[in-house]
Amino acid sequence: MTFINIANIVLTAITAILSLFVVHYIVFGVVGIFAKRKFPKTDEKLKYGLIIPARNEELVVGNLIDSIKKSKYPQDKLQIFVIAHNCTDNTAEICRKAGATVYEYNNPDECTMGYAFRYLFDRIKEDYGIENYDGFFLFNADNIVDEYFFEKMNDAFVAENREHVITSYRNSKNFGSNPISALYGLYFSTGCIFEARGRTALGCSTRVQGTGYVINSNLVKDGWKYVTLTEDWEFTADQLLSDNKVVYCDEAMFYDEQPTSLKVTFRQRLRWQKGHLLVCLTRFKNCIQAIFKSKKKGGGKHKFSLYDLSVNMSPILVTSFFVSLLQFIITAITPIFSGNFDAYKGWLISSGITLAWAYVFSMSTAILLYFLERKRIRKVSLPLKILSCLLFPFFMALSIILELIALFDKNVGWKSIPHSDTTNFDELHDDMDKARGKKKTDDLEEAKDEVAAD
């Protein structure tokens, strides 16, 4: 057996082992298709502070506040806090007129959303007292909440004894704007249906994705400490390390605005990948240690969730890419020394078939998602659905390229993402009412039929 043969066998084995680390993702995905956890309705209405960081968001933040005020939850149990962070427009004035409690904070050196959270929680502690709230919702200024958002989140929070972080379904208010926004919409819906829903249904912890989640007020009694490029990843890791889970509530939905340009897409996703790597550097070791330590010696309570998160935060995609690249190089130079071009052709055909299957699988995921979420994905034309399904595999594969860039680029920093979509609560509510109204009509007809039969 030649060196080339041995190298190929070893690299193939490494690829197989790396695949085993993520095989449980398939289980989560399948479970997410067929099962979701529902939380019992409660009459207990908790009091919440609503945290909204806003940087030059005068075009959209008013719509978020409006949606909060129109939600089906006692308004005396909700207090809206806005932190106008490094603003140069009328964000603060608009929010005050809308009835929010507004603080202004300007520090160009502290530009990430985490700094805004930190400053605002410090002000709330001084002026109102963290203990006066049962929990806090964390939003972004471009969000809009569904009318039943707080009701469903409160049900889940109470059902979990106010212990665990509750996250929600992330929809897109501009899903159908163009192919880029549609791809983003698919990406976040995929995270909810094929990742978060299955994990929660099986009793595992999921993770926070951006905003749209609620936390116990005790978690911020000493302030907010997550200020990196991806504070949500840091926060999730520390929750598990503290034996706390993140639970997904599928019935609670909020909307946010997705980028519509390639430039912004590249910039945002590069920041995500850089932040992902930084969190891996600071939390991966702790998570692994918590898996293998006994509970008596400070080990983690949720062992499998810690393993799942460790794999999720690790650069496993980049590692797999390098292994595949090395195998490609070895295979490519083999004919030069052996003169056996038939084996080379066979490898090319085999690799092509593998890539084709990967493409079909990813595209099928997008198609399935459009079918499963047909009542929640709004105003997307058929041509755009087809195009976004065809492009979805490339959108997902872009993560590998961007993680490679982030690995070597030391200058990746935070830059603001422009928000200009002025879709409001009433427009989104009308769309959802059509779906809910149809269901209510069907239920009413069934009830009439049962009465007639009796």
What is shown here, in short?
The protein contains 14 helices and eight strands.
Features:
single chain, 454 residues, alpha/beta, Spore Coat Polysaccharide Biosynthesis Protein SpsA, Chain A, eight-stranded mixed sheet, 8 strands, 11% strand
Describe the structure.
- This protein is an alpha/beta fold and 454 residues long.
- The protein has a single domain, classed as Spore Coat Polysaccharide Biosynthesis Protein SpsA, Chain A.
- It has helices at residues 3-21, 24-34, 61-69, 91-97, 113-127, 149-159, 179-201, 231-241, 262-292, 303-313, 316-338, 341-372, 382-408, 425-453; strands at 48-54, 78-85, 101-105, 135-138, 144-145, 165-172, 213-216, 246-256.
- Helix 9 (262-292) packs antiparallel against helix 10.
- The radius of gyration is 24 Å and the shape is globular.
- The N and C termini lie far apart (80 Å).
Low-confidence stretches: none
Shape: globular
- Secondary-structure-based class equals alpha/beta
CATH superfamily: Spore Coat Polysaccharide Biosynthesis Protein SpsA, Chain A
What does the average pLDDT come to? 89
Strand content: 5-15%
CA-to-CA gap between the ends?
80 Å
Whole-number count of domains: 1
Individual helix count: 14
Largest sheet: 8 strands, mixed
Estimate the helix proportion, in percent. 55-70%
Helix-strand topology string = HHEHEHEHEEHEHEHEHHHHHH
**Subunit arrangement of the protein:** single chain
Rg to the nearest angstrom? Answer: 24 Å
The CATH class turns out to be Alpha Beta
Number of strands: 8
CATH architecture: Alpha-Beta Complex
Question: In the CATH scheme, what's the topology name?
Answer: Spore Coat Polysaccharide Biosynthesis Protein SpsA, Chain A
Strand order of the largest sheet: 3-2-1-4-7-6-8-5
